[in-house]
Structure formats: structure tokens, C-alpha cells
């Protein structure tokens, strides 16, 4: 039986989170098998607001408002706007495919007309975060609101003509949005002009100040691809607030990684997959060595108080059971002797076992033979990735903007 979700009362951000989870279940680095996603997402929003793990290129932050501004100008009614918007988003797929120098990042490259998750849905929350979308509600509400919008816009225009100020025009999109090219959406490219890149930079600087994202788009450092955000050469020069957030984010990423490795080791053992189990055992040894190499920094990490203050300050509300699990795991990880022998630590294993059962009940892989069989059949489920806090998509979006700025 296919699962489904129904939202009775939700915010756009909550809806986006659930949709992203559904989209990303097949990507190992995004799996949240142990229920620590609320903390991961808090740091992701701190460092790279407006991004998501399934965004690809910066130009979509312009494609979407260009499409809908054009449809608004044509007064496309609410009953037809979703279909017309989808049609134009599909046209962009073909336009990008026809562009000879297009790189990776085309959403719907394979699915085309069968695309289920449109770019407008993927970028909707980010468009609001960056102050490009002014309409503050979900895209479904936006579609339904357009008939009223056209009437109110006409009333506001008439009142202005008559010298009355009783109506104020509603804006759905930022008035400074650069104009779409004349041949859009029949032709499209991921390349940003200097004006387009400057606009996106201005939006980020104004709406997302004091973030690693804003610092990177305003940096004159050459592009440097790194695997993890704290490896970027800009880090020593970041403001103190961001360096502190990054310090806590890195420490959490590196310590909680061991829990993911132990979880997979336990499953591999239960499945009788000796080679896999040996690989996870070796990875746990490397993990402990990594923590040991950073022992001085980790010894200064206030994981009991300041860490949680920062997480809570950004609106994250982990459950008590989630907080207890993380605290208990950090006590293990931050003990050099226990981290070194964690693969055989009975308490650590029990902690992982109880956490999975608490989250999944009868569907826990450590309890359910069918779930265990699926894990064995699907190689992507057998990987455990370290938290990167959306760095991969953010890095590409930042690179697009910086490349456009260099076209001045």
C-alpha cells in the first residue's frame, strides 16, 4: 500500500521539509535513520538559509518568479494557473537541454512531462527566505488567490486614478526582480548575467545577513570546491558568530557520524554480511582516530549547554527523547577510550537499538526481517554519510552567483 500525507494545518516550511524527505529517501547522505534531522536542519538554516538538499542551480531563483509574473500579467485565472505554470516549467527543461553548454542540474532531465516535483515547489520556500517571493503562503494558496489578486489590483488601480488611497496594491514578487529575457522560456540557460547575479547577491545580503551564505557570495576568494563547509578557506575570516555556529555544526557532524556507523554495523552483523560489517568496523576506527586528532577542540566544546542554546535559538524543537539520545551518544563519542572501542560497547549498542525501535517500532531493521532484507537488497541504504548541512547544493548555487558577478 502506497503511503500518503495530508496537511490539515501547516506552514510552508513544514510542508517543504516533509516533501524534501519524501524526495530524498533514496539518497543515503540525507537519511535520518536515528532521528537527528531537527538538529541537522537547524544548522543548515543557520549557515545556508533558503537552500534545500534538492535544489540544483541558482537560476531557478529567477526562473520561477519570471514564469509566474508573466502569467499574472496575462491574468491567467486561478483555475488554469497551475496547469499553465507546469507547462512553462516543463518547457524550461527542454530549453535547458537544447543549450549546448548546459551542465548538470536540470530538474526533470529524465522525467520531463512526467516530472512530479516541479522546481517551483522545490524553490518556493527559498524564494520567500531570500525576499524574492512576497506572497507568504504555500504555492497552492498562491494559485487560489490569483483571481482575488486581479480584482484587488484593478480596484487599487482605479482608486489611484481617482486620487483615493483606500486600496493598496498587493505585490507577489519583489519589485526589483530583473526582467526575463525576451525569448524566455523558449530559451533558457543556467548562466547568470552580472545584473542577475548582483540581484541574487543583494537579496541574500539583505535577507540573510550574518550567515555563511552571505559571506561567501560577497567574498572575492576564488572558487574552491571542498567536501565540507568548514574546510573552505574563508572560514578563518568569518565573523565570530558564524565561526561559533560552524564550530558547533562541525563537532556535531563528526561526533554523531559514529552513531550512524555503529547503526549500520549492527544491521550488517544481524544480516550476516561479514564484509560489510568489517567495513563499518574499520570506519569506526577511523572515526575514533578523527575525533582523537581534534581532541583539543572537542575538549572546549560545550555540548551540554551552549550547543543546545544555539540549536534552540534558531527555532528547532527536538523532542526530549531526541535530546536525550544525542546527549547520551555525545557522552560516548567525547570519551576517547569509549570512542575507540565503541563497536564493542554494550551500552552504545543498546542506545542505538532502543533509538531505532523507538522511532520505527515493528519496522526497525534490527527487529524486522523484511526491513533487513530490503536493506541488503538496496546498496544505497547501506551507506552512512556525514552531515554536510546542505553544503553540496549551496556550494553550486554560490558558485553560479560568483561566476555571474565576474561577468561585470
The average pLDDT is 90
Tell me roughly what share of residues is in helical segments. 55-70%
Shape: globular
Major sheet size, sense and barrel closure: none
When the domains are counted, the total is 2
Backbone structural class: mainly alpha
- Order of secondary-structure elements: HHHHHHHHHHHHHHHHH
Can you count the helices? 17
Q: Cα-atom Rg, whole angstroms?
A: 24 Å
Q: Pick out the low-confidence regions.
A: 1-10, 21-29
Looking at how many chains there are and whether they match, the oligomeric state comes to: single chain
Strand content: under 5%
Structure explained in plain terms:
- It is built from 17 helices and no strands.
- The protein is mainly α and 408 residues long.
- It folds into 2 domains: 31-48 and 238-391, no CATH class; 60-191, no CATH class.
- The longest helix is centred in the middle third of the chain and has 32 residues, at 240-271.
- The termini are far apart.
Features:
408 residues
Describe the structure concisely.
This protein has helices spanning 12-24, 37-47, 60-73, 78-98, 119-129, 139-161, 194-207, 212-217, 240-271, 274-293, 295-299, 306-313, 320-333, 336-340, 346-360, 369-377, 391-405.
Write the layout of secondary structure elements.
Blueprint: H1 12-24, H2 37-47, H3 60-73, H4 78-98, H5 119-129, H6 139-161, H7 194-207, H8 212-217, H9 240-271, H10 274-293, H11 295-299, H12 306-313, H13 320-333, H14 336-340, H15 346-360, H16 369-377, H17 391-405
Helix pairs in contact: 1-5, 2-9, 3-4, 4-6, 7-17, 9-10, 9-13, 9-15
Amino acid at each position: 500500500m502506497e503511503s500518503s500525507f495530508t496537511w490539515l494545518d501547516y506552514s510552508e516550511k513544514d510542508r517543504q521539509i516533509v516533501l524534501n524527505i519524501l524526495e530524498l529517501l533514496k539518497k543515503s547522505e540525507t537519511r535520518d535513520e536515528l532521528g537527528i534531522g531537527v538538529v541537522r536542519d537547524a544548522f543548515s538554516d543557520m549557515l545556508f538559509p533558503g537552500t534545500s538538499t534538492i535544489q540544483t542551480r541558482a537560476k531557478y531563483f529567477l526562473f520561477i518568479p519570471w514564469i509566474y509574473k508573466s502569467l499574472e500579467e496575462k491574468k491567467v485565472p486561478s483555475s488554469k494557473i497551475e496547469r499553465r505554470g507546469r507547462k512553462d516549467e516543463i518547457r524550461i527543461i527542454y530549453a535547458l537541454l537544447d543549450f549546448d553548454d548546459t551542465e548538470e542540474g536540470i530538474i526533470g532531465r529524465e522525467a520531463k512531462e512526467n516530472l512530479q516535483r516541479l522546481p517551483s515547489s522545490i524553490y518556493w520556500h527559498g524564494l520567500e527566505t531570500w525576499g524574492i517571493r512576497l506572497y507568504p503562503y504555500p504555492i497552492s494558496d498562491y494559485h487560489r488567490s490569483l483571481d482575488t489578486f486581479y480584482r484587488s489590483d484593478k480596484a487599487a488601480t482605479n482608486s489611484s486614478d481617482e486620487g483615493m488611497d483606500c486600496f493598496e496594491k498587493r505585490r507577489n514578487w519583489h519589485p526589483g526582480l530583473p526582467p526575463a529575457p525576451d525569448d524566455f522560456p523558449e530559451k533558457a540557460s543556467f548562466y547568470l548575467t552580472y545584473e542577475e547575479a548582483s540581484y541574487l547577491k543583494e537579496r541574500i545580503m539583505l535577507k540573510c545577513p550574518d550567515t555563511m551564505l552571505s559571506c561567501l557570495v560577497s567574498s572575492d576568494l576564488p572558487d574552491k570546491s571542498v567536501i565540507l563547509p568548514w574546510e573552505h578557506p574563508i572560514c578563518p575570516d568569518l565573523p565570530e558568530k558564524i565561526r561559533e555556529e560552524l564550530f558547533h555544526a562541525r563537532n556535531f557532524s563528526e561526533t554523531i557520524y559514529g552513531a550512524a556507523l555503529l547503526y549500520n554495523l549492527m544491521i550488517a552483523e544481524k544480516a550476516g554480511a561479514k564484509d560489510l560489517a568489517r567495513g563499518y568496523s574499520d570506519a569506526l576506527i577511523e572515526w575514533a582516530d578523527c575525533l582523537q586528532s581534534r581532541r583539543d577542540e572537542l575538549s572546549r566544546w560545550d555540548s551540554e549547554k551552549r550547543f543546545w542554546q544555539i540549536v534552540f535559538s534558531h527555532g528547532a524543537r527536538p523532542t526530549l527523547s531526541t535530546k536525550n539520545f544525542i546527549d547520551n551518544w555525545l557522552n560516548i563519542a567525547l570519551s576517547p577510550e569509549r570512542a575507540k572501542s565503541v563497536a564493542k560497547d554494550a551500552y552504545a549498542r543498546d542506545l542505538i537499538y532502543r533509538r531505532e525501535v523507538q522511532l520505527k517500532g515493528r519496522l526497525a531493521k534490527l527487529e524486522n526481517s523484511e526491513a533487513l532484507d530490503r536493506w541488503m537488497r538496496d546498496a544505497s541504504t547501506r551507506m552512512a554519510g556525514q552531515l554536510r548541512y546542505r553544503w553540496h547544493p549551496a556550494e553550486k548555487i554560490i558558485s553560479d552567483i560568483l561566476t555571474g558577478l565576474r561577468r561585470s
